[in-house]
């Protein structure tokens, strides 16, 4: 490869990394509604360059949040590996909700579905299956209320995503308190009558 071509590839890689870094920062602070032109300007590249690297907004979001998504899925794997299903469930919920609270962009992506991201779709489906298994295991131990359904986790994540506070620290603190309240209500010992469950697909909440 000629030095010129090598330099071009290096420049392209640097542009891509800079775009991702800027997008991650802007999504975290403003959410995923940030305009592509704003991302390009902040990254110091032309809009055409941005679209050559990421043809759609969805492809950019999927790339930016891939690491967080993998962490989310890994938290479910860890929960299943925990010999105490209730403890595993609580830790997974706490971890995912904390991620959602400190990164508003991730929270928005968490509530989005991008069909073009095939690998993410496959991992999302696996996470949904793992949630169902974990819920059943926690019920069998007698720690999780018998009328709990996976859609209740969807409600929890939607509620957590709606927290608004003055600072990221306050948002995280509010999230932790909300999650503690709700996890406490999931305990079998606190089980009182509930309205019928709501049909909300967990796939609409997982990244």
From TrEMBL:
GO terms for molecular function: DNA-binding transcription factor activity; transcription cis-regulatory region binding. Keywords: DNA-binding, Transcription, Transcription regulation. It comes from the Bacteria. It holds the Pfam family TetR_N. Residues 13-72 form the HTH tetR-type domain. Transmembrane segments: none annotated. Residues 35-54 bind DNA. InterPro entries: Homeodomain-like_sf, HTH-type_TetR-like_transc_reg, HTH_TetR, Tet_transcr_reg_TetR-rel_C_sf. PROSITE patterns: HTH_TETR_2 (PS50977). The keyword Transcription applies. Gene3D superfamilies: Tetracycline Repressor, domain 2. This is AcrR family transcriptional regulator. It comes from Kutzneria kofuensis. The lineage of its organism: Bacteria, Bacillati, Actinomycetota, Actinomycetes, Pseudonocardiales.
């Amino acid at each position: 490869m000629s030095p010129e071509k090598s330099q071009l590839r290096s420049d392209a890689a640097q542009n891509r990394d800079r775009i991702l870094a800027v997008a991650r920062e802007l999504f975290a602070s403003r959410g995923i509604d940030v305009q592509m032109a704003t991302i390009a300007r902040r990254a110091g590249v032309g809009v055409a360059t941005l679209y050559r690297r990421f043809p759609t907004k969805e492809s950019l979001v999927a790339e930016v949040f891939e690491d967080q998504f993998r962490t989310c899925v890994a938290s479910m794997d860890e929960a299943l590996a925990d010999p105490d299903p209730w403890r595993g469930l609580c830790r997974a919920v706490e971890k995912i909700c904390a991620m959602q609270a400190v990164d508003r962009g991730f929270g928005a992506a968490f509530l989005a579905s991008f069909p073009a991201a095939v690998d993410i779709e496959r991992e999302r489906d696996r996470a949904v299956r793992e949630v169902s298994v974990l819920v059943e295991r926690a019920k069998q131990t007698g720690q999780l209320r018998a009328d709990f359904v996976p859609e209740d986790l969807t409600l929890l994540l939607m509620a957590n995503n709606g927290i608004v506070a003055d600072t990221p620290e306050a948002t995280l603190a509010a999230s932790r308190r909300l999650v503690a309240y709700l996890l406490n209500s999931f305990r079998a010992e606190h089980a009182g009558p509930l309205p019928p469950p709501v049909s909300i697909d967990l796939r609409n909440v997982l990244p």
